[in-house]
Amino acid sequence: MNNLRIRPRRLRKTQSIRDLTCETRLKSSMLIYPVFVREGNNIIEDIAAMPGQKRYSPDKLPVILERAAKNKIGGILLFGLPEHKDECASSAWDDNGVIQQAIRLAKNEFPDLNIIGDVCMCEYTSHGHCGIIKNGCVDNDATLEYLAKIAVSQANAGADIVAPSDMMDGHTLAIREALDSNNLQDTLIFSYAVKYASSFYGPFREAAGSAPSFGDRKSYQMDIRNSREALKEAMLDIQEGSDMIIIKPGLAYLDILKSVKEKFLVPVGSYSVSGEYSMIKAAALMGWLDEKKIAIESAISQARAGADIIITYFALDLAEWINNGEI
């Protein structure tokens, strides 16, 4: 076999050669870190279902924002946990609400860090659904007005980007028109265009207190059996004015991520969700997996499938490993 001219193993023989020729490269600037912000003061509390993650009151956010800015990650995605909940999620569009307080503080103290507001109603409604309930169901069109209010309130507070995660038909158009009519045309929309009714969200619902009090979200989040529908949902959000789009969940839907990336020209984000994070943490705590190696491999798999942006609870760790030359 001495006459072999093509030997793929030559490109793998040393770490420096592998680094030189690798096809997929992670950068800290492509990472977004989700943060839970709860109403109150002087609060940093553990999230039992998500080891290593915490809830912060707005005044304690600089603890995490400083680390994010230092490691030059792409941004922070904020989820609000209010004290008051009602049927129309009024705390979500209160200009002095917990998320608005957090956005103002973050932009005042870290102006160069991209701050993204999650635009949804489930954390703020008494029933835990992502919209207005009429006759026992989520009313799509009635919900759009409130989503627009939330987005405008967050943008007025200083959010660089708003991220509607509700999966209502027409949500991007309603938000884009509301932003533009309020002289907020420079605010970006990073829509959860393709969000499945996944079982991987369980730990998040504990962290955010957002589990629905009745039924489920299958009438508005996508059917896990569908793939072509993802292209339709992405196309509609882009046509309505979304600057970037999110595929959620991440790891379990890499085929969807790849299909959407190949079809459309806007930046595509992959959200590696709470259940995916917690499974890795649990296995690592049991000694079954190497947490660091799996976290890196998981992020690379999403980038390899086409993610321009990765939303992950490992974002800060990954950024530190990247900046230390460990990835």
Can you characterise this structure?
By secondary structure, the protein is α/β, with parallel strands linked by helices. The protein is built from 11 helices and 12 strands. It has helices spanning 15-21, 62-70, 98-109, 140-157, 171-181, 202-208, 228-240, 254-263, 274-285, 291-305, 315-323, and strands at residues 31-38, 44-46, 54-56, 75-81, 115-119, 132-134, 137-139, 161-164, 188-195, 244-248, 268-272, 309-312. The strands form 2 sheets. Strands 1-4-5-8-9-10-11-12 form an 8-stranded parallel beta barrel, surrounded by 8 helices. The protein has a two-stranded antiparallel sheet with strand order 6-7. Strand 8, helix 5 and strand 9 (188-195) form a beta-alpha-beta unit. Helix 4 crosses helix 5 and helix 5 (171-181) packs parallel to helix 7 (228-240). The radius of gyration is 20 Å and the shape is globular. The mean pLDDT is 92.
Q: What's a quick, concise take on this entry?
A:
By secondary structure, the protein is an alpha/beta fold. Helix content is 38%, strand content 18%.
Topology at a glance:
Blueprint: H1 15-21, E1 31-38, E2 44-46, E3 54-56, H2 62-70, E4 75-81, H3 98-109, E5 115-119, E6 132-134, E7 137-139, H4 140-157, E8 161-164, H5 171-181, E9 188-195, H6 202-208, H7 228-240, E10 244-248, H8 254-263, E11 268-272, H9 274-285, H10 291-305, E12 309-312, H11 315-323
Parallel strand pairs: 1-3, 1-4, 1-12, 4-5, 5-8, 8-9, 9-10, 10-11, 11-12
Antiparallel strand pairs: 2-3, 6-7
Helix pairs in contact: 4-5, 5-7
Rg value:
20 Å
User: Which stretches are poorly predicted, pLDDT < 50 over at least 5 residues?
Assistant: none
Based on CA inertia axes, which overall geometry fits?
A: globular
How far apart are the termini? Answer: 35 Å
Q: Give me the side-by-side strand order of the main sheet.
A: 1-4-5-8-9-10-11-12
The succession of helices and strands, N to C, reads: HEEEHEHEEEHEHEHHEHEHHEH
Give helix % range: 25-40%
- Give the number of DSSP strands: 12
For the sheet with most strands, the description reads: 8 strands, parallel, barrel
